Request: fold
Amino acid sequence: MPAVAELVGKLFSGEDSVREILTWCSLLIFSISIFRRLRQWYRLSHIPGPPLAGFSRLIWLAPQGMSGQYTAWMRDIDRKYGRLVRVGPKTVVTSDWRLWKRIMSARSPWTKSDRYTGFRLDPQRDHIVSTLDEREHTRLRSIMQHGYSGKEVEGIEEKLDAEVLSFIRLLETRYIAHNKPFDFARKVQYFTTDAIAHLAFGEPFGFLETDSDVYNYIAIIEKTMPAMGFFTNFPGLFRVLRLPVLNRLLPKATDKEGMGKLMGLAKETAAERFGPDRKVQKDMLGSFIARGLTQPEAETQIVLQVVAGSDTSATTIRSAMLNIATNPLILRKVQAEIDSVAPFPKDKVVDDATTRNLPYIAALIRESLRWLQPAMDMSPKKAPPEGDEWNGYRLPGGTEVGWNAICVMRDPELWGDDAEQFRPERWLEAASDPSKLCDMEYVVELNFGGGSRFQCLGRTVALMEIRKVIFELFRRYEFVVMNAGKPWTSIEWNMVEQHEFWLKAYPRENSPSML
Ligand code: HEM
Reply:
């Protein structure tokens, strides 16, 4: 320290030799940094993209991640620069589904990019999505896949049925019975969050029962979306957040609301399952623990389960609702298919096996996922050290390639000239061309991550929940969109959010009312 003080003293007293050394040092550091940036820029300079994007993530990636207009940006760069676009110093986005398929395939040497660290819910700890350690990821997947698939678990369907009925009861008693409109965007979020909480915690949070955002959870998550958009571009910032002075600002398990409250509930739930008086249950968590998940891991994975499984499913249900309620041709086919297997008693929910055999509803759900991608983040993967090549473009080792979800899902080469239109029939028509149907099915599945390494673990549960709720809503009611000119407002971060989707519902003739 005295040496530093002496140096500073000499500097201010104007000793030329010290000032000169410092000036040269600064120039050297500056030149090295410029050289490194130029080298980085040069490595991918053969790939087209917005000017200056190759110099810093701050120029393109960060502002776009926080703009809330992700799809408009993605469509724009695809139109201007083509199927392979450089959007950051080492980041490229592709709308070529064949390249994305190759990257995501089971034996691909591509791995998760450091952007995944930005998905941490707790800066101190990784969960299955945020971990970059391949072996750790494989270990967690092998522990959890049995519970998620429902094989070792009792009561998944019963718990989902209870929440579907709770949802119907809420709509009917508070709105339909009083001829009042409701914001379907918000109510369906209550449903998906309670449904996933019921699976993860053993009971719902109570959104549906109270018709409110209990613990202010949704409001707080929505507020943190832009920050998440930023952190995914600068994952190194998580190291800064671990500093004690900033750590105090982060959610804590002792909080009374928001993510902290969720962390607290997860801690309590996990604690009940470990220790001498532990509760042994044959539910999802029970299966994870039986296969080796530790207590701290259980705390983190429960929280992730709720975050990963609520908004994603809600978006798919909204996409289906909007397109059925505004298109009489689709509505008639949905109702006819439901009526062909109904009636069930009013207090029963259709069973999963029945909904799996409804081809039009299956096509409708695929189309809903294609039309609006619930998790539209580019999710870049990192090229292996030896690099890769695609269509004559060299992708040097360490290059991150992400996908342009909206452009893949609207690619006219795959989906035809009517790619922009919501048309479930395209799936039924494609049955006559098995190779085309196979490509379409593969590509729409990319919404769930794809491949054996990156595929969503909650896919089976999500589809069961979505099929059931669509069936039950359209079995019982006719829906009217209140503001047909602008049915909802949509904000797109890494995830897409819809708000203000106002509907009115009327009981269908001869439909089973809950009242
Ligand atoms: C329509 C609904 C859903 C969609 C579109 C969806 C999408 C995705 C995607 C794209 C990934 C991969 C992330 C990546 O590695 O890049 C993923 C992973 C995951 N999802 Fe889902 N998800 C949905 C519903 C659910 C539900 C309901 C649950 C929980 C029950 C869930 C739990 C998970 C988990 C645990 C992972 C981590 C898998 C891993 O990293 O190995 N998801 N999901």
Notes: Residues 128-129, 141, 196, 304-305, 308-309, 312-313, 316, 374-375, 379, 447-449, 454, 456-458, 461-462 surround protoporphyrin IX containing FE (CB under 6 Å). The mean pLDDT is 90. The first strand starts at residue 84 and ends at 86.
